[in-house]
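Whether sequence alone determines local backbone shape is best considered at the level of individual chains. When preparing material for the folding task, we compiled for one chain both its residues and its backbone structure tokens. No coordinates are needed to read the tokens, only the vocabulary itself. For completeness, the protein is quoted in full, as a sequence line and a line of structure tokens:
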Amino acid sequence: MTAHILGTGRFVPEKVLTNKDFERMVETSDEWIVTRTGIKERHVVAPGQTASDLALQASRQALDEAGLTPDDLSHIIVATCTPDTFTPACACHLERKLGISGKIAFDINAACSGFTFGLEQARAVLALHPHSKVLLVGVDILSSRTNYEDRTTCVLFGDGAGAAVLTGAPGEREVDGEVLDVILGTDGNYSELLHIKGGASGWPYKAGDTVGPENFIVMEGREVYKVAVRTMESACRAVLDGQGLTTDDVDMLITHQANQRIIEAVGKKLNIDNGRVFMNVHKYGNTSAASVPMALAEAREEGRVKKGDLVLVAAFGGGFTWGSALIRF
């Protein structure tokens, strides 16, 4: 069974929140934010802009690079924890906006690890139906679930979308990234360290209820950091071992762009020098499920990932969830 990436795309909304903006909103400073996170700015949606709107732009870019039209697709998988609506799925909204119908469209939620979990879903589809064309999108609008009065979390998150088109055979165009393997894991015992509860069945609202802090991201940053670094390192080593490879074979490490400290720590644990670690967290912040596909698309655009390169992907998110993938371009 093989899975090939035929095109990638990314999109962020126009509005930018800088660290200077946050200095006016909460008790913080540009120096404090940059020192602890590496983030300088993040993009956030305009009123009325939805996850499927962002996903649509990233999808069009990926389809164009793949040389395909929306109607060529057989499946649409959207990884998100901030869909337009609880139901219908964000993937259904995206299908409609792409101007197509009758496809297999569904969402998955693995928080910031969503794109890696989606890669495994795409591989499963292609194992059964190799000629399928799968659109995989990671998109989140975390600004909708960010408490802008909480100085410890509000500076971290931004909005964005990243997409990839996959099929079971190499493409005729220049783009061809073969997904060699994916390793995933979860541990629900850590759920209280990173969560959004408000509005779900475990924390329902009644008409007229006031939205409280439970509606927004809650995170124990120090504890999350420890588990994130440990699990991403372990997943990376497992996926490399499975292919008989080592970190010396890796041309580029692309991790979930949570913050600079985590990214650098994972690279250091794996003995991958900074020149082989891609980072764009300073421009976008933590965009959750969009983080990895946005970074992959941007790394390719900048020529940091070239034909023949081996890309090691690592992600971590609420759940806790984590995963790693190997892609040969």
In short: The first strand starts at residue 4 and ends at 11. The longest helix spans residues 221-242.
